[in-house]
Write a structure and sequence with these properties.
Layout: E1 6-7, E2 38-42, H1 47-57, E3 68-73, E4 81-91, E5 101-113, E6 116-121, E7 136-142, H2 148-151, E8 159-162, E9 171-174, E10 181-182, E11 185-198, E12 201-212, E13 229-240, E14 250-251, E15 264-266, E16 271-273, E17 275-276, E18 288-292, H3 295-300, H4 310-319, H5 322-325, E19 330-334, E20 347-352, E21 359-366, E22 373-381, H6 383-391, E23 410-413, E24 416-417, E25 422-425, H7 443-463, H8 493-496, H9 504-513, H10 546-564, H11 573-589, H12 592-603, H13 620-636, H14 657-668, H15 677-690, H16 693-709, H17 715-732
Parallel strand pairs: 1-10, 18-19, 18-20, 20-22
Antiparallel strand pairs: 2-3, 3-8, 4-5, 4-13, 5-6, 6-7, 9-23, 11-12, 12-13, 14-17, 15-16, 21-22, 21-25, 23-24
Organism: Pyxidicoccus fallax
Protein name: EcxA zinc-binding domain-containing protein
Pfam families: DUF4953
């Protein structure tokens, strides 16, 4: 489904499974010891149910234990609990299809009524006024009354017994294209597994398979023909509500260096408030422990990577943030295995052995009432190691093309859905070039620094820091000049290996957020929203002047190859699109002087009269002609979707318009004798789009000159000129809209 976002609505579009499961086998066995607030009660599953589960879920998820009922002490029902959901497994697609993400955390309590145990969202954010303080139902479980061993247990009357897999089963799928639309998703089969008792509650997993009533988007080509079906494992936790001692909220500063915590209503005002999301980090605290999945050791032991200290590189990326705090706030340890990466009580760096997933990401779990970060996870695939191994060194083996991926759907549960703080994608242009060498660094140092840079960036997000894409503006290109003031931006590979420790911006930003300094960062700053309005705020650039030192040199290097090559430009459009959009964004959105200079420098090798080098190949002029008209068409005519981040036509300013009109006139009149009919007719359309007197006058001038030339022309040239005149006649009759 490409046009609709898929979501299972919170209050509509939900249903219980239509397939009635086979009845459980009669329960037999000893009574159950009932002591804690939550108790797992062993459950016997019928042979028919077990066979169905095995058939449906074989190869997707693995049953890691006996299913169970959940007994909850009645005296605890009215207490506040954190209910957290984490999508551990998702089939098809895994991490590419939004697995390994927190779906969110609610503050809930329970209410027993009408044979069901209702789950109520009771966080403080929804209070409108002294009158309107709503109860919001988010789930309902049928109460089990016929379980013999439980009923015979001492104190059973003080507990309520539920089947944690038999609630409303509000699994949904979230798409990203056109917002959220309610779509039914019915669970066909589900069972609970891996019950764990925690110090402050319980955790377990729910394995499910089901189908939607519309086809589900698939981010990559995957085996299996049923595009309606989805399966997965959801990790759930119920933990006693608590606010950490030492947590002090930080108001959002005027410039949003930090992620926002959940919004909350200010009662009786119709206003909302938010604070910066942060942990309860303070001097004297017990360090926050990060567990690195043991799968990193699998990659470490790969013969290709045994020469690198990958474990050390990842740990440095986590513990490197202690420099900003001035005390040990974070510590990194290797986990015994990789099975517990969804555990709510752990902070986990998931190191995937997959060498094809082209991104890393971070997400967290917050207290909805306060904005305190309760836990976090990071996903890093082995592709980053593979890529660095290919990129760096004295004798790289080959040019490497960027992996591609399609949009994916997102799973939600009980109204909670998985989002990431950022997805750090491999910064590879469509036709990748090997990174330039980093003087003074060995290949081992480069690969390890590259990985450390990725982890530093993602840990920074989990601490609450947003992107800062202005960090690279400090780099002037000279030896010894810092590459950036921050790890919180996206780097060109050659710069990333030099940024494996915190920058001054990172230290200042963290210290202000966590109350260790009263001084906000003073370094240059811009973030994601700014990248849509400021051409100097770029997700990936270099140098203090990215236009003249990075984008234009890169464009001209590519341009020289295109003009001297024999491959038609029409076969290089993906590379053309990528390289031309960056200099043109300065023409579209820079100040008056920048617009003019960016245009002049972009068009310098292409403008009429064309300067053809003495050693140029015979195809040089034709190639230059095509790039010229395509560049001007990209600036004024092409659809917005082709233009990159900045899509508006440049203003018809006195600094820019005469320069453009001069070039367009020269191409339209073919003053250098190398312009194609396609290029010339495109210029007519551009002059029409301008809607200025200068452009109108140029069309009238061309009309007169071409009319005068017509008697001396013959053959194809005459026919094409007649067509041009017809186009001009249409453009000026009338000209102004």
């Amino acid at each position: 489904m490409s046009a609709a976002s898929l979501v299972l609505a919170l209050s509509t579009g939900c249903s219980n499974p239509t397939n009635t499961p086979a009845p459980d086998a009669p329960e037999a066995g000893a009574s159950v010891e009932l002591e804690d607030a939550f108790v797992a009660v062993p459950r016997v599953v019928s042979a028919e149910q077990k066979q169905q589960v095995e058939q449906k879920l074989r190869g997707v998820v693995e049953n890691s234990g006996t299913s169970f009922y959940l007994a909850i002490r009645r005296s605890e029902l009215s207490q506040k609990w954190f209910m957290a959901a984490y999508l551990k497994q998702q089939h098809p697609g895994g991490a590419v299809n939004r697995a390994a993400r927190s779906l969110g955390t609610r503050v809930v309590s329970f209410k027993e009524q009408n044979g069901k145990l209702f789950v109520l969202d009771v966080d403080d954010r929804k209070v409108m006024s002294d009158v309107f303080d709503p109860d919001v139902v988010v789930e309902a479980y049928p109460i089990v009354t016929d379980h013999g061993p439980f009923n015979r247990s001492h104190g059973a009357d003080r507990y309520v017994l539920i089947d944690p897999t038999a609630g409303l089963n509000r699994f949904g799928v979230m798409g990203d294209k056109l917002g959220e639309r309610g779509v039914r998703f019915e669970v066909e089969l589900s069972f609970a597994q891996r019950f764990r008792r925690l110090a402050d509650g319980v955790a377990f997993e729910q394995v499910f398979t089901g189908h939607a009533d519309v086809p589900l988007e698939r981010p990559i080509e995957l085996p299996g023909d049923n595009v309606f079906q989805s399966s997965g494992t959801l990790a759930l936790a119920l933990r006693r509500y608590a606010e950490s001692p030492g947590y002090t909220p930080t108001p959002l500063p005027p410039r949003e260096h930090y992620f926002r915590g959940p919004a909350r209503l200010i009662p009786n005002t119709l206003l909302t408030e938010q604070v910066a999301a942060k942990w309860a980090i303070h001097p004297g605290m017990r360090p926050i422990r990060w567990h690195i999945t043991s799968s990193l050791l699998t990659v470490q032991n790969d013969p290709r990577y045994q020469g690198y200290d990958l474990v050390g590189a990842v740990k440095r990326g986590i513990e490197g943030w202690n420099q900003a705090f001035g005390f040990t706030a974070l510590e990194a340890v290797m986990a015994e295995d990789s099975s517990g990466f969804a555990d709510d009580e752990k902070n986990t760096l998931i190191f995937d052995t997959d060498e094809a997933v082209p991104f890393a990401f971070a997400n967290w779990r917050t207290n909805p009432n306060t904005g305190e970060i309760r836990g976090a996870s990071i996903y890093v695939p082995a592709l980053w190691v593979w890529w660095a191994d290919q990129q760096f060194g004295d004798d790289p083996s080959a040019r490497v093309a960027a992996p591609t991926r399609a949009p994916s759907t997102r799973m939600s549960w009980a109204g909670m859905k998985g989002d990431t703080l950022c997805e750090l994608e491999l910064p590879v242009p469509p036709e990748a070039e090997l990174a330039e060498d980093a003087p003074g660094l060995t290949k081992k140092q480069k690969v390890e620094a590259y990985l450390t840079n990725v982890v530093l960036h993602e840990i920074g997000h989990t601490l609450g820091l947003r992107h800062n894409f202005m960090g690279s503006r400090v780099y002037d290109g000279s030896p010894g000049s810092p590459r950036s003031t921050t790890v919180m931006e996206y780097f060109d590979d050659v710069d990333a290996v030099h940024v494996d420790t915190l920058g001054p911006y990172d230290v200042a930003a963290v210290r202000y957020l966590y109350g260790l300094s009263t001084q906000l960062p003073t370094h240059a700053f811009c973030t994601d929203e700014d990248a849509n309005v400021d051409p100097y705020c770029n997700l990936s650039d270099r140098f203090d002047d990215p236009l003249t030192k990075y984008y234009l040199p890169r464009f001209h290097t590519q341009l020289n190859g295109w003009l001297r090559g024999t491959r038609p430009i029409s076969q290089l459009l993906r590379t053309f699109d990528y390289n031309v959009k960056f200099p043109l964004q300065f023409v579209r959105a820079g100040d008056a002087a920048t617009r003019a200079s960016a245009y002049v420098m972009t068009m310098a090798p292409l403008r009429p009269p064309l300067q053809i080098p003495a050693n140029a190949p015979p195809t040089y002029a034709a190639q230059a002609d095509e790039v010229a008209w395509r560049t001007l068409a990209r600036l004024y005519l092409d659809p917005a979707a082709s233009r990159g981040t900045f899509t508006a036509n440049p203003p018809n300013s006195p600094e820019l318009l005469p320069l453009v009109v001069a070039d367009v006139r020269g191409i339209l009149l073919n003053v250098d004798g190398v312009r194609s009919f396609t290029a010339r007719r495109t210029m007519v359309d551009i002059l029409k789009v301008h809607q200025t007197l200068a452009s109108y006058a140029t069309l009238r001038e061309a009309q007169d000159m071409l009319t005068a030339q017509l008697p001396s022309l013959s053959g194809d040239e005459r026919l094409q000129t007649e067509d041009l005149l017809a186009r001009i006649d249409a453009a000026v009759s009338p000209y102004f809209r």
